[in-house]
Design brief:
The chain has about 700 residues and is of the alpha+beta class. Helices cover about 25% and strands about 15% of the residues. The structure holds CIS-heme D hydroxychlorin gamma-spirolactone 17R, 18S. CIS-heme D hydroxychlorin gamma-spirolactone 17R, 18S (HDE) binds next to strand 2, strand 3, strand 4 and helix 10.
């Protein structure tokens, strides 16, 4: 795994051993199964017998002539047999992912709405594990594809595990769980060819989108910049489904859960995402690991949107419909806690691959709602873990709670736990392990009154599907609208069947005529002449990514963990190089030196060994580039690859810094004198945080620049 060369490199978790990690209950809880090899350890068989040669199979051999391998070699057979069975089924969705451990701290009690300890006790630090994922791709697919991202959080509370199995987009494609197999079949590779991998750009996906008008709102989100995040650390997380909170008095409220990153919400641009897919398919995985490994811990604010039960019917949408957001103007987000990820896993498979989330994992003070998507999910997650991990999946180290687990469930494949005594049923004559009482904090189901007919029917308000798609479109900044047009134009161009892209363009005309016309032109569909539904003109500020700039949340913009490439050749100005690198590293930016070769690059008596050469990395993998002055410019300016580095970074709206003669190469590449903050060919206006240099070599770090067009 690539480590950043700058900043204080510390082994996350270990560095604070004796501190927070030593008291992290989940870290302690996994200790018995954690093997940390030492110099004195030697290879044994699985049944503990020390082995002396594990490289050559036992043979009937004379030494000068090869003889047959013998079946009696127990160790060789064990080694091969264990290897043969290393794979388990990958997740049926969200197969590709990565994760980390951390902590959750509450800073404001929500006792007015819930009795849950994790949401009322501000003295607690609750251990967490988070797994981020894409949805459609297989386990080995690329990180930067256009897709929804999973954002699944397991909170190991003192009252049991609470899982918020969310996404980076607050709504879903479908309203009813019974449609899940259809939407996933339509999105995954097509059955006759198993093509395309990890892509929604194909006939079946868009056919489904048209056939299910309820998907309209969600596909707008997926086609927006949310579909191509810059980093897992820069994504919002949403519980999506409507849950309930119940307070001590037994009063119930409806709730939506939010995670908001304190470094802001940032995305790639599509051209970058496409290229990174090939250049570094592990881009997001590596980014998360590297940041944590270097002590730049990602944090999210935790927020709740509350709707009192008495107000549930007041709105023009059903609050139990997962294709709808609760607009923040109507339901403000109340931020009450913060989550930090501060420890990478020790081993991928037993921790990230075997972690098992279930929406049904809730704790006292938290409940479900009648959201029909949630009800189906509550069944599906348990069920899928049984085929993926087996019935005793709850016992796996990463999954088991930090509080006691006691019951009369027994046996099943790979049961680990040994329970003493005679009783494995309740009630028993010895009163062994009875249920808890309410005063002991036992989970009590909310006594909800249900009067209904048994029918296959959703509520009337579930039938409106376009209002919030319009709200989303109207709320986008100009560059966000442009990106949606481009994304839809890309995706629909990959659909060969005219009925698919023509009908979808008709659907777009229900959202916005401007959108439909722009896309129709690109994809060759008939141009809609009038909007097929009037636009209500409403907006909601919190739907645009720009709304989540760190300043808006009370945080300073930061360059920490941002990737900076410093371009050098023989004869570069060492003093400038050192000054800029030092300033950036002190601010915890991750600096990489890139040169014509990895061997030493000389500069008036000094030299550096670059981390990469121009061909082994590309500008796409960095947030910013800096070119020091010096004689190297006369050579570099003639090299197409170096000019491409600068041009490409410019085209992707990246911060480009140069000092001294470095300015000349920037000018040669992009035709602009000195330091500029880029605007793309489309005239987009973006916010940049980063390195600011001037031709005079003045350097300031971490400035937030509002870019202006022109
Ligand atoms: Fe999932 N989903 N889902 N999902 N989902 C799974 O469970 C399912 C839905 C989400 O990192 C599966 O353990 C149904 C919405 C995440 O391990 C499976 C429905 C949201 C993850 C499953 C939904 C999600 C999953 C596959 C419709 C956002 C990855 C493997 C009713 C709130 C968890 C697994 C991880 C995984 C079923 C819809 C998020 C099959 C039936 C809505 C983040 O059980």
């Amino acid at each position: 795994m690539q480590k950043a060369v700058a900043g204080t490199v510390q082994r996350a978790g270990e560095a604070v051993a004796g501190g927070a990690m030593a008291t992290n209950k989940k870290v302690q809880n996994m200790k018995p199964e954690t093997f940390d090899p030492s110099e004195s350890d030697r290879i044994t068989s699985d049944f503990g017998v020390l082995q002396h040669n594990t490289d050559v199979w036992l043979k009937a051999s004379t030494g000068d002539k090869q003889g047959p391998a013998l079946l009696e070699d127990n160790f060789a057979r064990e080694k091969i047999m264990r290897f043969d069975h290393e794979r388990i089924p990958e997740r049926v969705v969200h197969a590709r992912g990565s994760g980390a451990f951390g902590t959750f701290k509450l800073y404001e009690s929500a006792e007015d709405v819930t009795s849950a300890g994790v949401l009322t006790d501000t003295s607690r630090t609750t251990p967490v594990f988070v797994r981020f994922s894409t949805v459609l791709g297989s386990r080995g697919s690329s990180d930067t594809v256009r897709d929804v991202r999973g954002f699944a959080v397991k909170l190991y509370t003192e009252e049991g595990n609470w899982d918020i199995v969310g996404n980076d987009i607050p709504v879903f494609f479908i309203q009813d769980a019974i449609k899940f197999p259809d939407v996933i079949h339509a999105g995954k590779p097509e059955p006759q060819t198993e093509i395309p991998q990890a892509q929604s750009a194909h006939n079946n996906f868009w056919d489904f989108q048209y056939m299910h008008k309820e998907a309209t709102h969600m596909f707008m989100w997926a086609m927006s910049d949310r579909g191509i995040p810059r980093s897992f650390r820069m994504m919002q997380g949403f519980g999506v489904n409507t849950f309930t909170l119940i307070n001590k008095e037994g009063v119930r409220s409806f709730v939506k859960f939010h995670w908001t990153p304190t470094i802001g919400v940032h995305s790639l641009v599509w051209d970058e995402a496409l290229k990174i897919s090939g250049q570094d398919p592990d881009y997001h995985r590596r980014d998360l690991y590297t940041a944590i490994e270097n002590g730049v811990y990602p944090t999210w604010k935790f927020g709740i949107q509350i709707c009192p039960e008495s107000r549930a019917d007041e709105f023009d949408f059903d609050i139990l419909d997962a294709t709808k957001i609760w607009p923040e103007e109507v339901f403000p987000v109340r931020y009450i806690g913060e989550m930090e990820l501060n420890r990478n896993v020790d081993e991928f498979f037993p921790q990230i691959e075997q972690v098992a989330f279930c929406t049904a994992h809730i704790v006292p003070g938290i409940g479900f709602s009648d959201d029909p998507l949630l009800q189906g999910r509550n069944f599906s997650y348990f069920d899928t873990q049984i085929s993926r991990l087996g019935v005793n999946f709850q016992e796996l180290p990463v999954n088991r709670p930090v509080c006691p687990v006691m019951n009369h469930h027994r046996d099943g494949a790979l049961r680990h736990r040994i329970t003493k005594g005679q009783f494995n049923y309740w009630p028993n004559r010895g009163s062994v392990v009875p249920p808890g009482t309410i005063s002991e904090g036992a989970y009590v189901d909310y006594p909800q009154k249900v009067v209904a007919m048994k029918q296959r029917l959703n509520s009337v308000k579930f039938s409106e599907h376009v209002n919030q798609a319009q709200l989303f479109w109207n709320s986008m900044a100009p560059h966000e609208k442009l990106h949606i047009i481009k994304a839809l134009s890309f995706e629909l161009s990959k659909c060969e069947d005219p009925i698919v892209y023509e009908r979808l363009v008709e659907r777009l005309a229900e959202i916005s005529l401007e959108l439909a016309q722009a896309v129709s032109d690109k994809v060759g569909a008939p141009k809609p002449e009038q909007e097929s539904r009037p636009n209500h003109g409403k907006k909601s500020a919190a739907l645009s990514q720009g709304h989540f700039a760190p300043e808006a949340l009370g945080y300073q913009p930061t360059i920490a963990s941002r990737m900076v490439a410093i371009i050098v050749g023989d004869g570069f100005n060492f003093a400038e190089y050192e000054a800029v690198k030092g300033a950036l590293s002190a601010a915890n930016a991750f600096c990489f030196t890139i040169g014509p070769r990895k061997s030493e690059i000389k500069s008036s008596g000094k030299s550096v060994k670059p981390d990469h050469h121009f061909e082994s990395m590309r500008s796409t993998l960095f947030d910013s580039i800096y070119i020091p002055g010096g004689e190297h410019i006369t050579t570099l300016i003639k090299q197409g690859r170096v000019l491409h580095w600068i041009r490409e970074a410019f085209g992707h709206c990246k911060t480009i810094g140069a000092s001294g003669d470095g300015v000349k190469i920037v000018k040669a590449a992009i035709g602009i004198e000195g330091m500029r903050f880029s605007e793309s060919g489309d005239g987009e206006v973006v916010d940049c945080y980063g390195v600011v240099t001037s031709a005079g070599g003045k350097i300031s770090v971490g400035n937030a620049l509002k870019m202006a067009k022109g």
